[in-house]
Amino acid sequence: MARDYYEVLEVGRDASPDDVKKAYRKKALQFHPDRNQGDKEAEEKFKEVSEAYEVLASEEKRKIYDQFGHAGLRGRGYEPNFTDVGDIFSQFSDIFGFGDLFGGMGRRGGGGGRRGGRPGRDLELPLRLEFLEACEGCQKDVQITRADLCAKCNGAGLKEGMTKSTCNTCRGAGQVTQAQGFLRIRTVCPSCGGRGESVPAGAACDGCGGSGRERRTDKLTITVPPGVDTGMQLRLVGKGEVGDPGAPPGNLFVTIEVKPHEVFQREGAHTFCEVRVPYPLMVLGGEVEVATIRGKEMIKVPAGTPSGKVITLAGKGIEKVNGHGQRGDHHVQLVVEVPTKPSSDEDRLLRELAAAQGVKVNEKGGLKGWFDKLTGA
Ligand SMILES: [Zn+2]
Ligand SMILES: [Zn+2]
Fold it and tell me: If both were cysteines, with which of 24, 182, 288, 317 could 328 make a disulfide (CB 3.0 to 4.6 Å apart)?
């Protein structure tokens, strides 16, 4: 009945995968429906060479065929049977694709007939950081629950030693063609969801019931680069949920939130803080200690510095994200420190100063005397 596949493609039994491709390309061109319009015999030939290629291009199927012949393929549901030329075009779209007609060969998986499938879902994870952690970068251990490959069957969905069979509905193509009036509409196979394969009864993995997937909570260490700020997202490629076979996994998006700091504020890579400076130092000049995100520093205060003056420390801010080590600036606002409980020495000197400036101030103990009268003490 069915002819020998090697004979059909006119290749030796030891033909390399590349030889098989070349032979199929040659034959497919010869019997291509576009070149043989209305020729029934050519169409049958086209189907025959395509079936031969379907088997010999798959390492797994070729092995079975070499050992057990057509019967071996049939027993595993692997024997191709193209009834529609359109199915051939969709299955070998990497060969018959636009702009690539019989040109470069696409990569074909060993499973044969497998569609691209859906990529894994992206996940989002909020991550709250301390202010200085965000400035300097850090490593964070997080727990993440996601669909992953079943640990028991490693995603195969099968008990050990079992194999999947080609989907009966689409015969492995992953797509079915439906006639609607004179239109032919191709849709994803409803039985296998486009995978082209199905799990035979009793062969499903106990761990996942055949889906090859399970929800697992894993620990993940996230490396946060220096300089991140609230609202930024880190993308961890491939750390989302696992996808369909052959499709890429999703990504994990980590959304940063930075907690406020009691001393520092920030705007991008620039930092801000306020420093209280004693009045004489503002008037006469001197040095004052200020905090930066990387420790304390002494800065010079010129004589006659007005309260509210901002001094900029270039490059003492936060490292810019992807800024190759470049840092923002640190802005320090100098504000006159007003003592709430001056010592008696300070009190005396301030009164002398007030007198020298002709400034009228409250009398000593005035407020206290008024308070004592009020409470009757
Ligand atoms: Zn199917
Ligand atoms: Zn499993």
Answer: 317
Q: E strands along 259-370, which residues? A: 265-267, 270-278, 286-292, 295-301, 309-313, 330-337
Domain assignments of the chain as residue spans, ordered by start: 5-112, 123-154+214-258, 265-338, 346-377
Could you tell me the distance, in angstroms and rounded to a whole number, from the CA of residue 278 to the centre of ligand 1?
Answer: 81
Q: How far is the CA of 334 from the centre of ligand 2 (A)?
A: 65
User: Which residues are close to ligand 2, an ion, with C-beta < 5 A?
Assistant: 150, 152-153, 205, 207-208
Between the alpha carbon of residue 355 and those of residues 260, 339, 347, 362, the distances in Å are: 44, 19, 12, 12
Residue-wise pLDDT tens for the chain (377 aa)?
Answer: 678 999 999 999 999 998 998 898 888 888 887 777 778 888 889 889 999 999 999 888 899 899 888 888 888 777 887 777 777 776 675 565 432 233 323 323 333 334 456 788 999 999 999 999 999 999 999 999 998 989 888 888 888 888 888 888 888 888 888 776 677 778 888 888 787 888 888 888 998 888 888 998 989 999 999 999 999 999 998 899 988 777 788 999 999 999 999 999 999 999 999 999 999 999 999 999 999 999 999 999 999 999 999 999 999 999 998 778 899 999 999 999 999 999 999 999 999 999 999 999 998 765 555 555 566 54
Residues 6+ apart with CB under 8 A from 26: none
Residues 5-112: name the CATH superfamily: DnaJ domain (1.10.287.110)
Q: Name the architecture of domain 265-338.
A: Sandwich (2.60)
CATH topology of domain 123-154+214-258: HSP40/DNAj peptide-binding domain (2.60.260)
Ligand closest to 154 (CA) is: 2
Q: pTM, whole model, 2 decimals?
A: 0.56
To which residue do tokens 């801010």 refer?
Answer: 317
Which one, of 167, 163, 119, 149, lies nearest residue 212 by Cα? Answer: 149
